[in-house]
Amino acid sequence: MSCVGFWTESQRRRLRLAALDPRPVSRFLSPPSSDSKQRRIRLLSLDPRPEIRESAALHARDDGVLHRLATDGEASVRAAVARNRYCSRDTRELLSQDPDEIVRGWANWYAE
Amino acid sequence: MPILGTGIQEGLLLKPVTYQWAMDLYDQAVANTWFPNEVQLGEDLSDFEKMSDDERHALTHLMSYFNPNELLVNKALAFGVYPYVNAAECHLYLAKQMWEEANHCMSFEYVLETFPIDREAAYESHVTVPSMAAKEAFEVKFITRMTEQSLDITTTEGKQDFVRNLVAYNVILEGIWFYSGFMVALSFRQRNLLRNFGSLIDWIVRDESLHLKFGINLILTVLEENPDVATPEFAEEIKQMILDAVTMEEAYNRDLLPNGILGLNADYINTYVQYLADRRLEELGFGAHYGVANPAKWMAAANDTLELVNFFESINTSYEVNAKAGS
């Protein structure tokens, strides 16, 4: 059974046919970032497990949450804040003084 | 109850949880839940239009590799992993992982819909670029066996085949080859290009780091519960699979970046590939083979692989914290 690979003539023919159809396979209708997601992230940002707070830091849009996580005891959480492009200038400035080299690296890189 | 089994009559009760690491990974995976269009990729279009032909070639090459392979990983999970795992907590995690692979596939679809990438030209590289065809032939070899053969998981040979499949798909495809691609994808952002695309890749990397943790823990648990599996010959074979995978990836990266872009060249990426392979070897209980330093320190912040070393330890710690929080 040739179930994978893109070298079969049949798959290449289907791909050529698909190119004639301009419709996307999905309408990508989920909201950009819903209020309920941000409420969930606020709760996750209070979780005792640093792995969960890292996820919150990576996905948060609320700078109040990001600013609080920027002072988290775990460097990995602060690094996730610094990587978040929704982090405000004030929060990023705070992280640019961080004792951890990787956190400072991300904060300074985004500030450029 | 051992972790391997048919999963038909067993694996229907979640409590008591036998493998707490799987439950913890499930919690982390749920915390990571996201959708592709939370990222406004359209804002990156002006960057895409400014990019050089070599930069577009690299992005196209990456998309043509990632997009089908996310689906391929799901086939491997469905045929090669899920049916042979007994624990309900592992099934929960695998179900979330499969949704994540679908979500990643749709994320790359979102990239292909947003940027003017010629799909036929992109997929043509699967035919015309020997290094990509070699990687796919490796994957096909294992997925064919998973889809066409049932393992007798009660025998040593069946358990070894299960581990081989996991090493091929989890350790090599997801844990080395994908990470090599992620580094190239994130390097655009390092140069202030495609920042939204970078966020999308960041989220994917975070998911993938959990997939890797799950797979490594599954392998280590199988080896611990089945001392007959890890014979010296089998260990040597597994190590050689990883070394061969590095050789394949090195050739692929030379085709990916024939002229170098964004401060990257094939040698730089290939040093990172060797660094990754050493970490995977160590996680499986082998010593490092290449002994190279990570040339891309910034990638250390973009993934969680270094945490694997103390993974069991950190689970115990979080448990104590949870127990106190709940008391």
Describe this structure in words.
- The complex is a heterodimer of chains A (112) and B (327).
- Chain A is 58% helix and 0% strand.
- Chain A has helices at 9-19, 35-44, 50-59, 63-69, 75-83, 89-95, 101-111.
- Chain A has 112 residues and is mainly α.
- In chain A, helix 3 (50-59) runs parallel beside helix 5 (75-83).
- Chain A contains 7 helices and no strands.
- In chain B, helix 4 runs antiparallel to helix 8 (195-225).
- Chain B is globular, with a radius of gyration of 20 Å.
- Mean pLDDT of chain B is 84; it is low at 303-327.
- Chains A and B meet through helix 1, helix 3, helix 5 and helix 7 of A and helix 1, helix 3, helix 4, helix 5 and helix 6 of B.
**Fraction of residues in helix of chain A:** 55-70%
Distance between the termini of chain A: 52 Å
Which descriptor suits the 3D outline of chain A?
elongated
Helices of chain B, by number, come to: 12
Give helix % range of chain B: over 70%
Shape call of chain B: globular
SSE order of chain B in H/E notation? HHHHHHHHHHHH
The chain-level structural class of chain B is mainly alpha
Largest interface, counted with CB-CB under 8 A? A-B, 42 and 52 residues
Regarding quaternary structure, what we see is heterodimer
- Strand element count of chain A: 0
Question: If you compute it from the alpha carbons, what radius of gyration of chain B comes out, rounded to the nearest whole angstrom?
Answer: 20 Å
Q: What key phrases describe this protein's structure?
A:
heterodimer; A: 112 residues; mainly alpha; 7 helices; elongated; B: 327 residues; 12 helices; 0% strand; globular; disordered C terminus
Q: Can you lay out the helices and strands and say which pair or pack?
A:
The complex is a heterodimer of chains A (112) and B (327).
Chain A: H1 9-19, H2 35-44, H3 50-59, H4 63-69, H5 75-83, H6 89-95, H7 101-111
Helix pairs in contact in A: 2-3, 3-5, 5-7, 6-7
Chain B: H1 20-31, H2 45-50, H3 53-81, H4 88-114, H5 119-128, H6 130-148, H7 156-190, H8 195-225, H9 232-256, H10 266-283, H11 297-302, H12 311-326
Helix pairs in contact in B: 1-4, 1-8, 3-4, 3-5, 3-6, 3-7, 4-8, 5-6, 6-7, 6-9, 7-8, 7-9, 7-10, 9-10
